[in-house]
C-alpha cells in the first residue's frame, strides 16, 4: 500500500505537532516549485487527494497531510481547529515551506481558514472545496447529516473494507478511486480490524469555528463546489456569495460533495488556475487531463 501511496502523493515523511506525530507526503522535496498544502475533511485522510495530486505535480510541490486523529497521524485526548491548524504548521515547517496556498476539502477548508486567521503571514491564499462556512453563529442543518465511524471492530479486513461508504451519501465513484481510500484507512488492532481515524476527532462540531468574514478582506480565496453537492447546496452557495463578495466561485458539473473523487482532473485544473493567481509561481498554470 505504501508504494502506491507514495507513487500518488510523493515521499512519506513525519512531523510533530504538540506531541503528536503527523504523517504527510511531499511530491517534490527538492524541486523549486510553488507549494500547495492539501488538507482532507472529517474522518478522511491524505489519500482522498490521490486522484488530484498527480495532475498538479508538474507545476506545484504538493504537501498532503494526515491531520491528527486521522490516517497514520497520532491521536490526541482532544481536538479543535487550532490544533489541526498547528498540525499544518508543523508539516510546513518540517518541509521547509514558509508560506503556501492552502487547499481544503470539506472540514479541511475550515482548518485552512483557521490556519489563515492564526498565521496570515504564512498564507498566500485559500482554496475551499465544498466547505460549509458559518456566519451569525448559525449551524447549517446539513452539518448534522451522517456520522463517520464509531470505533467498532470487524473480524476480517475484507469485512471492514466492505463497510466503507462515503458521507454524505452520493453515487459511488469508480472502484479504482474509492478502494485505495478504504485500504489506506484500515488498521489491524489486537481487538480486530478497524478504521484508523479516532472517533473522537470526527465528533468535533465545526460550529465551534465561525467563519470570520473580515479575514477575506485581504486574503485571496476561491470556492470550488459540486453542482449536485448535498452539503454546499445552491442556496448555501448563494448566501456565501453575498457574504464573501471577493471570493471566486467555480462549479463542477456532475460532481457531488466529494468533488476531488468525482472529478479529480477538473478539480486539479481549477486548483492550479486559482492558485497560480495567488502565488508568484507559474503564472497561468494549468494541468491537462
3D architecture notes:
It is a single chain. The chain has 289 residues and is an alpha/beta fold. It has one domain (2-146, 208-276): Alpha/Beta hydrolase fold, catalytic domain (Rossmann fold, 3-Layer(aba) Sandwich). Helices cover 30% and strands 19% of the residues. The protein has 10 helices and 10 strands. An 8-stranded mixed beta sheet has the order 1-2-4-3-5-6-9-10, with helices on both faces. Helix 4 links the parallel strand 5 (100-105) and strand 6. The two termini are 25 Å apart.
Quick gist of this model?
The chain has ten helices and ten strands.
Percent of residues in helices comes to 25-40%
Strand order of the largest sheet: 1-2-4-3-5-6-9-10
What's the end-to-end separation, in Å? 25 Å
Strand content: 15-25%
What about the largest sheet?
A: 8 strands, mixed
User: What are the secondary-structure elements, in order, as H or E?
Assistant: HEEEHEHEHEHHEEHEHEHH
CATH fold description: Rossmann fold
What would you call the shape? globular
Helix run count: 10
Nearest-integer average pLDDT: 89
Number of domains: 1
What is the top-level CATH class?
Alpha Beta
* Main structural class: alpha/beta
Please tell me the CATH architecture by its name.
3-Layer(aba) Sandwich
**What's the count of strands?**
10
- CATH homologous superfamily title: Alpha/Beta hydrolase fold, catalytic domain
Outline the low-pLDDT stretches: 139-146, 281-286
**Rg over alpha carbons:** 17 Å
